Amino acid sequence: MSEDSLFIVNKMIDYFNNGDYDVSAVPEIEEQNISALQFHARMFSLADKYAVDILISLSAAKYLDRLRNSEIVEFLRSIPAVYELTPSYVRDLRDEAIKYARINLPQGLENTPVRQIYEGIAGTTPEFIKELLDSYMETPMIGKCWDCGSYQALQGVQSRCLQCGHDTTPPAC
């Protein structure tokens, strides 16, 4: 545990004592210069490292809950923790990060500071960029399903020329 952050290890001990950990009103998180999203990713990594299955589930749920309410900058800054601290076969946070990026990143990149952060992440965490690109190739369209209520893969049933607007869908047989 010597290479693990003492702050995060102490929060892991809190979990063992209380069955939970909280970072909502902790001044140390600001002293550590990490966001809540980064913290949950690091806790997930620590729980995975020591095979604490219930803490893996809890920290993944807390990451996802925070992700739903986070700004794009906080999300981007959590990517190194998600991708560099866990093995590639541990998909819990990675899959959620890719889904969040597909939904929110296109609009976020219109902002110059966000684009600069993204480009920095792209340079330091190429595995994220590869997985993001792979997700577009495997599932070109995603959107909110009115029945499921969640973002799912979609099938395109109509196509239009982006220049003239003409329907290019082949006629039904």
Describe this structure as you would to a colleague.
The protein has helices at 6-18, 27-31, 36-49, 53-68, 72-84, 92-108, 112-124, 126-138, and strands at residues 142-144, 151-153. The chain is mainly alpha-helical and 173 residues long. The chain has one domain (6-153). A two-stranded antiparallel ribbon has the order 1-2.
Provide a brief overview of the structure.
By secondary structure, the protein is mainly α. The chain is 60% helix and 3% strand.
Return the string of H and E elements.
Answer: HHHHHHHHEE
Arithmetic mean pLDDT: 90
Strand line-up of the largest beta sheet: 1-2
Evaluate the radius of gyration: 19 Å
- Give the structural class: mainly alpha
- Unreliable residue runs: none
The biggest sheet amounts to: 2 strands, antiparallel
Protein name: BTB domain-containing protein
